[in-house]
Specification:
The protein is mostly helical. 61% of the residues lie in helices and 0% in strands.
Length: 118
């Protein structure tokens, strides 16, 4: 090892004739359509009733003559938002299922086409 010009740079003189490689190539594979919608829907469906209950609890228990306490109203609104999350997750699941079916069909057609050629 030689002394580098800058303190944070290390040079290796043992392999000066070897070509520099930057490491193995990285192949980025996109996520299938519908996956993020499923994940977001499940996240919203799981946490919105909890946050609705928390939000309702910040307003207290309410007055004595009240028929609905703010805690119940917050929980109800959280459940409604959670239902929207379930709908989003289901729609994303349908989109993901259809995409997987189209990929499977395309793979089968390609395999059948290569058998006909051979």
């Amino acid at each position: 090892m030689t002394q580098p010009d800058e303190p944070h740079v290390v040079t290796d003189t043992a392999h000066e004739d070897a070509p520099l490689t930057r490491g193995r190539p990285v192949v980025l594979v996109p996520t299938p359509p519908g996956l993020w919608m499923v994940l977001l829907g499940v996240f919203v469906a799981t946490l919105s009733p909890l946050f609705g209950f928390l939000w309702g609890g910040t307003f207290g228990t309410g007055e004595e003559g009240q028929t609905l306490s703010p805690i119940y109203i917050g929980l109800f609104l959280g459940v409604l938002v959670g239902a929207l999350g379930v709908i989003a997750a289901l729609l994303g699941g349908v989109k993901l299922y259809r995409y997987n079916q189209s990929v499977r069909t395309a793979d089968e057609d390609e395999a059948q086409g290569s058998r006909e050629i051979a």
